[in-house]
Design a protein that fits this description.
By secondary structure, the chain is mostly beta strands. It contains one helix and seven strands. Strands 1, 2, 3, 4, 5, 6 and 7 form a seven-stranded antiparallel beta sheet that branches. The termini are far apart.
């Protein structure tokens, strides 16, 4: 394995709090966080103690993608994880064999 594959990708982390985002469960719009505009891209349901979400957003100024997480626990408590972590778009090509 090459050394490049062993290195962790350096990712930008933006520290935020639930108070910085008016409604972090809103999957229809944009947020102004610390003077930067972030647009909703995708909500991915993830296994959690209740209902977990990885939300993908895109920063308007430089088009970088970030992920933040929140969940609704079984005890009906909302939990927000306090950062936006940079993620990278990955394109996968799938070949489907068919017979006619």
């Amino acid at each position: 394995m090459s050394e490049d594959k062993d290195k962790e990708i350096e990712r930008e982390i933006v520290k935020v709090t639930a108070d910085d985002i008016e409604d972090y469960t809103d999957d229809s719009g944009s947020w102004d966080i610390h003077g930067e505009i972030y647009h909703f891209v995708k909500d991915i349901l993830v296994p959690a103690d209740g209902e977990g979400h990885d939300v993908i957003i895109q920063r308007e100024s430089d088009k970088k993608f970030f992920r933040f997480c929140w969940c609704l626990t079984r005890s009906e408590t909302y939990r927000f994880y306090d950062d936006f972590t940079e993620v990278f778009e990955k394109v996968e090509t799938v070949t489907i064999k068919t017979y006619v």
